[in-house]
UniProtKB/TrEMBL annotation:
Annotated family: Belongs to the N-acetylmuramoyl-L-alanine amidase 2 family.
Organism of derivation: Amycolatopsis arida
Superkingdom assignment: Bacteria
Name of protein: Putative peptidoglycan binding domain-containing protein
The Peptidoglycan recognition protein family domain, residue ranges: 2-146
CDD domains listed in its UniProt record: PGRP (cd06583)
UniProt-listed GO biological process terms: peptidoglycan catabolic process
Gene Ontology MF: a single term: zinc ion binding
């Protein structure tokens, strides 16, 4: 399961400034890579240093306020938090690109293979941006904003054939929002969870609205799993729903 690495977890420097002027419901998520050659680390121990060096480059050479990306995904199924959900990026190359699209960088170069663990990390990152980040469902590549080789042929092929879409994941990644009541939570991820509860044999309406009925099912499910029965679908209850 994907591990999210917080900014303090990878030793990030503080951002010089933060802009929340982003409207990702009008765009979606843009996919990037690091650059040419082979840059993916064999050992995950080395990934945090790689992310720090990218941040140094962006802040000290490019003069940006912070690392440009929203998230960075490594080949070991870890997602490093860059600017994070709700924050404007500097990575997409155009004003409209940075206004409407998040940016998720794969820690690979064009000579690296794309392992399944990187695809999983992308699923988790994009699910989180669609949930907590309010992104639309579109996924594109840096080259769709302007002329660039980014994100490389291999990663871009997965953008084009839909492989990076979290709806392709065997186990849907937690969307980063809490399904709870009251008030009613309405989100596409509620539908996903309700369908799974139906698959597990619970009788409930699949309507994308987490209300009294969904909460009651959640409490029963949590008790059956020995989880805290608070009636809130957070990450633990979400993940348990597919186990
Ligand atoms: Zn790029
Ligand atoms: Zn790694």
């Amino acid at each position: 399961m994907t591990v999210f690495v917080s900014r303090s977890g990878w030793g990030a420097r503080s951002a010089r400034s933060v802009s929340t002027n982003i409207t990702p419901a009008n765009g979606g998520v843009t996919v990037h890579y690091v650059g040419s050659g082979s840059v993916a680390k064999q050992n995950h121990d080395q990934c945090a240093a790689q992310v720090r060096s990218i941040q140094d480059y962006h802040m000290d050479q490019k003069g940006w306020s912070d690392i440009a990306y929203t998230y960075l995904a490594c080949v070991h199924d870890h997602v490093f938090v860059g600017r994070g959900p709700g924050v404007r990026t500097a990575a997409n190359g155009t004003t409209s690109g940075n206004q409407n699209w998040y940016a998720v960088c794969g820690l690979v170069g064009d000579a690296d293979a794309i392992p399944e663990n990187l695809v999983k990390a992308y699923h988790s990152a994009i699910a989180r941006l669609r949930g907590a980040g309010g992104a639309a469902n579109r996924i594109n590549g840096h080259r769709d904003h302007l002329s660039t080789s980014c994100p490389g042929e291999r990663l871009y092929a997965l953008v084009k054939d839909g492989s990076l879409d979290p709806r392709r994941a065997a186990v849907p990644p937690w969307p980063g929002i809490y399904l709870k009541y009251p008030p009613i939570t309405r989100h596409s991820s509620v539908t996903t969870w309700q369908e799974q509860m139906r698959t597990r044999g619970y009788s409930l309406t699949v309507d994308g609205a987490y209300g009294e009925e969904s909460k009651a099912i959640c409490v029963r499910f949590q008790r059956s799993k020995g989880l805290a029965a608070d009636g809130i679908v957070g990450q633990d209850t979400w993940d348990a729903s597919w186990r």
